[in-house]
Amino acid sequence: MRVLVVNAGSSSLKLRLLGADDELLGARDLAPEDDVGAALDALGEADAAGHRIVHGGERFHAPTVIDDEVEAALEALTALAPLHQPKSLAGLAAVRAVRPWLPEVACFDTAFHAGLPAAASTYALPAAWRERWPLRRYGFHGLSHAWASRRAGSGRVVTCHLGAGASLAAVRDGRCVDTTMGFTPLEGLVMATRSGSVDPGLLLWLLEKGMTERELAEALEHESGLKGLAGTADMREVLAAAARGEAAATLALDVYVHRLRAGIAAMAAALGGLETLVFTGGVGERAPEVRARAADGLAFLGVHVDAQRNVAGEEEIGADGAPVRVLLVEAREDLEIARGVRAALG
């Protein structure tokens, strides 16, 4: 089965065509004004399409064949992910307009976390709220975490998806038992432009001071994180500026790594120990200094990185004889989506 993988981002539509043995047959990254039909003609024919859908809510826990009823349910979930769900649905519509005969499967970023234990998924909020609304920790980046943990193998694994968005997952024998993102992708680690976890009392204080909900949302989503601390959302620029001794960039890197170390330790605690630590995503794969600094604070867990392997970007970067394996895994959500498509369609 040749699978067309469709990943709709904030400003691009990423298309990947995978062959029967998961070989990459073609790739196109389209801007909004580009012709989807022409791009698909250039890629070649597919037998099915798999769409990355950010939010599956409480209903969708596995790859699901898309029909009219499922599509309506996905649209109804927009309120839970107003910044991300419309883009996923727009990608679905764009491909369907030119390939209406393709079977389509929705693959969800939340599905990998759907089985979180109640202790990990439940917010300590009034029962009346939790009964009225679907208030729980959903988690995100599930396709990436699923792929990375599968590559790591069984045992107690912490996966670090570090990109523009960033999150961690605690995975025991393939099952996620904790993660850092929550009801929205704002919770958890410091990210490129997102704040990560912030004291809710601080946010209430800002509202009382006259900041509007819209201003608050815009700042937390697009003006915080590395951008808020260092003036740039690009980790490469932050690292270069920190190396020059610039105070803002140094602080940004220190805050980023501090939160990352603490998050990894928390995930290890949820697992009752750590056997494998995995780095993936753009920063995770291409920023050896971030990996090294994170590992320096985790020696008490048995994490030790070999400096030469780390700089070289080898797959195994842990030091010889260290109790914990440390891996670099290329982010391949497309392979995880293709796997889900084949499972859903039999």
Give the DSSP E fraction (strand runs of 2 or more residues): 15-25%
Poorly predicted segments: none
Total of domains: 2
Order of helices and strands: EEEHEEHHEHHHEEEHHHHHEHHHEH
Number of strands: 11
The span between the termini is 10 Å
Q: Could you say which overall geometry the principal axes of the C-alpha atoms support?
A: globular
Average pLDDT rating: 96
What is the assembly state of the chains in this entry?
single chain
CATH homologous superfamily annotation of the largest domain: ATPase, nucleotide binding domain
Number of helices: 15
Query: What is the radius of gyration computed over CA atoms, rounded to a whole number of angstroms?
Result: 20 Å
CATH class of the largest domain: Alpha Beta
CATH 2nd-level architecture of the largest domain: 2-Layer Sandwich
Sheet with the most strands? 6 strands, mixed
Describe the structure.
The structure is a single chain. The N and C termini lie close together (10 Å). The model has no long low-confidence stretch (mean pLDDT 96). The strands form two sheets. The protein has a six-stranded mixed beta sheet with strand order 3-2-1-4-6-5, sandwiched between helices. The protein has helices at 36-43, 68-76, 85-98, 118-121, 127-132, 142-152, 200-208, 213-222, 225-230, 235-243, 247-271, 281-286, 288-296, 307-312, 333-345, and strands spanning 3-8, 13-18, 24-30, 48-53, 64-65, 104-108, 156-162, 166-172, 175-179, 276-280, 325-328. The protein has two domains: 3-108, 2-Layer Sandwich (Nucleotidyltransferase, domain 5); 151-328, ATPase, nucleotide binding domain (Nucleotidyltransferase, domain 5, 2-Layer Sandwich), CATH 3.30.420.40. The radius of gyration is 20 Å and the shape is globular. With 346 residues, it is of the alpha/beta class.
